[in-house]
TrEMBL record:
InterPro entries: Diminuto-like, FAD-bd_PCMH, FAD-bd_PCMH-like_sf, FAD-bd_PCMH_sub2, Oxid_FAD_bind_N. It is found in: Membrane. Keywords: Membrane, Oxidoreductase, Transmembrane, Transmembrane helix. It is an enzyme of class 1 (oxidoreductase). Residues 49-232 form the FAD-binding PCMH-type domain. One of its GO terms (cellular component) is membrane. Residues 550-568 have a biased composition (Acidic residues). Its main location: membrane. This is Delta(24)-sterol reductase. Residues 539-568 are annotated as: Disordered. SUPFAM superfamilies: FAD-binding/transporter-associated domain-like. The chain crosses the membrane at residues 20-42. It is a single-pass membrane protein.
Length: 568
């Protein structure tokens, strides 16, 4: 193994007025975004409390009435006069970083804003039935006191069930349960013609069930989902293990932290409940592994309990970094606080948004107001600042086969120099139908570390921060860097979640993702001409109505491809 060479020096970048606006944007954040965020969060919380005061029966009754309103609204659409169907949610409300430019074209709005209720928590069947706008903070607040939880709880409070299903969702438990959509038992969907169907993996709508994940809501309107619950305990016993070495050595230590070299990946004694690694420099990282622990165990004499959810606490990524100085240590964190450990500082993006936000005095006086709501940050940035971030900042996730994680780390260092990096493993299942994301053909024959016969182990390399060249005042082409990232992913059977800014052409989009099942379902369930295709919904830049309609017409005229099924 060889150490990665330092990237060559780049020319100095000339600063302009946009650099100044971004540098002092914290003023807007402090005096406008944070107060508005607090009021927004509080109003949402009151709405959730009102909902929780209602019986499950009453919530289900209101849900059924709201579904009827959606069906009625869809039937009011005149296909020859009205634009394609979109939700009525404002573009800036979405948590994702890509521009929601598709709503600039003429479109027909359907209001899904009432769909934000937990409809049922069935602890006998171990199923949670929820509406698509239920977020992670809301569902964990309801389930954790019952000692049950969703199998995959995405870290940020604001992430919604609908976004995690139609898009992408991962957590430190995904090396066991897969992506968020892999934990779904059924979908309730309103199709283009107003028909309401329930899709499961083994009923007549099984093709739709497998096609919905990653489809960005372009096959129908999701109005509820049943999701798997798992039993949990009150605390997470978390072990912090420092790693010092080159990037390939860090990658191997990360793999060893959760995947036994003997291939016994399904042995709970050998595989922790939660895993993540943060790479702080090209030579330093901290691997974290967690196991659920009872209240009795956590409170035994000598054990350290860390309530990371308190507003004045050191930001989690900085707390974990202390392991590099003091060595390996163990502590117990209340389970719900552990789930949302990255919320207050938005991983480490909070350091860029508020350069002094991690200081003790700010945390103590104003930490309770954190984090600023991502949607309000987007709403107050304007198009010029938004474009500035696209060119000088990186927020991307690279989903790559686990055995290639070392190569991915070296690539990011060479092309972007972004640190810290977030590593989180996930299973990519071998399913009955070939979906938009799928494991490498023949992976089960290779018997690589982390793989099983039924799933290939992948890892998310989270790249979130200003690149090294930008921090040094050097030239950096963010658009070209993203294009190179996308090309590298295509060459290495990787995937790019489409919440992020994408530079993919349509041809390369379908080189990265498999569209056979998706396009079959688009035609079978009459989504063409009603919902925008997933590429045009994800595509960067403004979508004109003519452009979209022509693309839809081309799709309708192409012969339906055969759906690939994995070989036995």
């Amino acid at each position: 193994m060889t150490d990665v060479q330092a990237p060559p020096p780049r020319p100095k970048r000339k600063k302009n007025i946009m650099d100044l606006l971004v540098q002092f944007r914290w003023i807007v954040v402090i005096f406008v975004v944070l107060p508005l965020s607090f009021l927004y969060y509080f109003s949402i919380y009151l709405g959730d409390v009102r909902s929780e005061c209602k019986s499950y029966k009453q919530r289900q009754k209101e849900h059924d009435e709201n579904v009827k309103k959606v069906v009625k609204r869809l039937k009011e659409r005149n296909a020859s006069k009205d634009g394609l169907v979109c939700t009525a949610r404002k573009p800036w409300v979405a948590v994702g970083m890509r521009n929601v430019d598709y709503k600039r074209a003429r479109h027909f709005e359907v209001d899904l804003s009432p769909f934000r209720n937990v409809l049922n928590i069935d602890t006998e069947r171990m199923i949670a039935k929820v509406e698509p706008l239920v977020n992670m903070g809301q569902i964990s607040r309801v389930t954790v006191p019952l000692n049950v939880s969703l199998a995959v709880v995405a870290e940020l409070d604001d992430l919604t069930v609908g976004g995690l299903i139609n898009g992408y969702g991962i957590e430190g438990s995904s090396h066991i349960y897969g992506l968020f959509s892999d934990t779904v038992v059924s979908y309730e969907v309103v199709l283009a013609d107003g028909q309401v169907v329930r899709a499961t993996k083994d009923n007549e709508y099984s093709d739709l069930f497998y096609a919905i994940p990653w489809s960005q809501g372009t096959l129908g309107l999701l109005v509820s989902a049943e999701i798997k619950l798992i039993p949990i305990k009150e605390y997470m016993k978390l072990t912090y293990k420092p790693v010092v070495g080159n990037l390939k050595e860090i990658a191997q230590a990360y793999m060893d932290s959760f995947s036994p070299r003997d291939g016994d990946q399904d042995n709970h004694e050998k595989v922790p409940d939660f895993v993540e690694t943060m790479v702080y420099t090209p030579t330093e990282a901290v691997c974290m592994t967690g196991r659920y622990a009872s209240k009795e165990e956590a409170k035994k004499k000598g054990n350290v309990i860390n309530n990371v959810g308190w507003w004045f606490k050191t930001w989690f990524y900085q707390h974990a970094q202390t392991a590099l100085k003091k060595g390996e240590f163990v502590e117990y964190i209340p389970t719900r606080e552990y789930y949302h450990r990255h919320t207050r500082c938005l991983y480490w993006e909070g350091k860029l948004i508020l350069p002094f936000g991690d200081q003790w005095w700010f945390r103590f006086l104003f930490g309770w107001a954190m984090p600023p709501k991502v949607s309000l940050l987007k709403a107050t940035q304007g198009e010029y600042i938004r474009n500035y971030y696209h060119e000088n900042h990186v927020i991307q996730d690279m989903l790559v086969p686990l055995y290639k994680v070392g190569d991915a780390l070296e690539w990011v260092h060479r092309e972007m120099e972004v640190y810290p990096l977030w590593l989180c493993p996930h299973r990519l299942y071998r399913l009955p139908l070939k979906t938009m994301v799928y494991p490498e053909p023949g992976f089960e024959l290779q018997k690589r570390q982390g793989d099983t016969k039924y799933a290939q182990m992948y890892t998310d390399v989270g790249v979130y921060y200003a690149p090294g060249p930008i921090l040094r005042g050097e030239v950096f082409d963010g658009i070209e860097a993203v294009r190179k990232l996308e090309s590298w992913l295509i060459e290495n059977h990787g995937f790019q979640p489409q919440y992020a800014v994408s530079e993919l052409t349509e041809k390369n989009f379908w080189r990265m993702f498999d569209g056979s099942l998706y396009e079959n379902c688009r035609k079978k369930y009459r989504a063409i001409g009603t919902f925008m295709s997933v590429y045009y919904k994800s595509k960067k830049g403004k979508k004109t109505e003519k452009e979209v309609q022509e693309a839809e017409q081309e799709t309708a005229e192409v012969e339906t491809p055969e759906v690939d099924e994995p070989e036995d």
